[in-house]
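Need a sequence for this fold. Nothing fancy.
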């Protein structure tokens, strides 16, 4: 799930890329050292906060060192987004990349260079988180340690595979594919056909991402086909009862780290239903059924069409703005700036509202689907609502901060209130 911080990180990075003028008096070596120094500084800041959390764990009441460190990390990531224009522009890093592109370096490589500082910072943050987690686990299990605990390096690789790095790469990949299509157009077509070739290759790249993103993302996160057994047979039976075809059931091994479920993919035969190993371990059969029904409700209600509506709205608003903008009063750069601002705000608010509506609708629809596909809830959506509420409580018990409203998910209290309406 893409957080608001990561989404803003991508928007700010792209905005800085457009604002870069391509001329700099800063030496390349100085720009590189300054940008990497900023990355290292934020990484060391999180390291210092983790050490402080460990040193104060005996004096903290009601909060563990790990919880305190997670809160500090959120603050540091937010501060990084705020400081990103300085990291990319003031240090000269952005001007260095712009000059490289003007000198003939493919824009795909320079685009990745714009995101390189953020990617490196995530590597450092996950490294510190893995080391802190090993220390916290070692303290809790010191009495019965049998030597089976994972080393921090292994935990680091797991966090790189399942954490925010996967979300950020998911955001960057479509942009990089479009940039790559433009590079191919610049080298593979004559000047009079370059625009058409760029448009065609961009469309092909987007289609490829839409269809094959689930495969790439699944390979990165390490999902595997769901093992044969009674649970697999039961879930496939639910697919058939609800007449939902073209969904492949997958398991995400995470050493108990990912207690989640996700429906990945937009079209039949390319859809994947991911179930985390921790989800199966924590929930009862009825609770697990309701989580699965919630994910299937997104398919049954075609929520992927709901979710692209803010994007279509953005295109419409920007198109109208460019049509009615008085060119004789304001410059084209001012029009571009206002268009970007309107598009960003509309996209942020629109995605938030639509995502919340989809979650409420999926909760209610899941109860109806369970009354059709689950033997224990046959004809009784109210019982299904109780089990779904119980599942949400079980999953959020160890992570209280996730019970509050986020950018793409409503709060637990509002979801409970919505579920209480089921069956009335």
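Here you go.
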């Amino acid at each position: 799930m893409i957080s608001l911080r990561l989404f803003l990180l991508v928007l700010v990075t792209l905005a800085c890329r457009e604002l870069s003028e391509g001329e700099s008096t800063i030496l390349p070596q100085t720009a590189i050292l300054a940008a990497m120094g900023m990355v290292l500084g934020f990484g060391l800041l999180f390291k210092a906060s983790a050490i402080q959390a460990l040193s104060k764990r005996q004096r903290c009441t009601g909060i563990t060192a790990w919880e305190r460190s997670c809160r500090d990390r959120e603050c540091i990531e937010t501060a990084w987004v705020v400081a990103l224009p300085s990291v990319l522009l003031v240090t000269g890093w952005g001007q260095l990349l712009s000059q490289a592109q003007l000198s003939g370096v493919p824009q795909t490589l320079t685009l990745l260079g714009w995101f390189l500082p953020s990617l490196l910072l995530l590597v450092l943050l996950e490294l510190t988180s893995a080391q802190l987690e090993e220390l916290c686990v070692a303290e809790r299990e010191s009495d019965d340690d049998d030597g089976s605990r994972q080393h921090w390096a292994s935990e680091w690789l797991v966090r790189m595979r399942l954490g925010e790095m996967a979300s950020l790469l998911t955001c960057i990949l479509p942009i990089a594919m479009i940039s790559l299509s433009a590079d191919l157009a610049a080298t593979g077509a004559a000047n009079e056909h370059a625009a058409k070739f760029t448009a065609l290759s961009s469309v092909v790249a987007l289609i490829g991402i839409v269809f094959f993103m689930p495969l790439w993302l699944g390979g990165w996160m390490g999902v595997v086909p769901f093992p044969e057994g009674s649970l697999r047979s039961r879930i496939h039976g639910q697919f058939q009862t609800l007449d939902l075809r073209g969904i492949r059931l997958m398991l995400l091994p995470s050493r108990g780290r990912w207690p989640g479920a996700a429906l990945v993919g937009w079209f039949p035969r390319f859809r994947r239903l991911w179930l985390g190993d921790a989800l199966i371990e924590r929930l009862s059969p009825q609770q697990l059924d309701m989580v699965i029904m919630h994910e299937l409700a997104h398919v049954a209600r075609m929520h992927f069409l709901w979710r692209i509506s803010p994007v279509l709205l953005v295109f419409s608003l920007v198109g109208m703005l460019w049509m009615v903008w008085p060119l004789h009063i304001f410059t084209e750069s001012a029009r571009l700036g206002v268009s970007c601002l309107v598009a960003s705000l509309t996209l942020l608010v629109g995605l938030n509202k639509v995502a919340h509506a989809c979650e409420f609708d999926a909760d209610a629809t899941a109860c109806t689907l369970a009354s059709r596909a689950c033997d224990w809830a046959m004809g009784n959506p109210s019982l299904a609502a109780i089990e779904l509420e119980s599942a949400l409580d079980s999953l959020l018990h160890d992570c209280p901060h996730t019970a509050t409203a986020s950018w793409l998910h409503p709060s637990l209290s509002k979801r409970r209130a919505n579920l209480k309406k089921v069956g009335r």
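For context: The first strand starts at residue 224 and ends at 225.
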